[in-house]
Amino acid sequence: MPHYSRLCKIVIDVPDADHDAELGFWQAATGVTLNRYESEPAYHGADLRGQDIGLLVQRLEDGPARVHLDIHTDDLEAEVARLERLGAKRVRQVRGWWIMRDPAGLPFCVIPDAPGSLDDGNAQRWD
Question: In angstroms, rounded to a whole number, what is the distance separating the alpha carbons of residues 14 and 74?
Fold first, then answer.
């Protein structure tokens, strides 16, 4: 089934003890204020100026600091299945999106976008 997806965010995952310093560093490094998400207080993010990608600093409850990518799609199951055919593995579903691992074992997320938000002008169409 045709659907769209796009690389949408760079996510910096940081343990709680390092979160504030990391947030301050990336705001200063990019010159962009990373706002706290009201619905998800562990997240601070914004779109990067002049880029078609956002930056998100995520406070981790556990685990090491790392960076992962978020792919947004208008058809979650079709995109996850497409990525599985390419060698990715599902890890677990969280709040409506999938945490996956690429063939090298690196984590990334596949997140549903609002219907109609992805099109030929801002995303890749997959037939």
Answer: 28
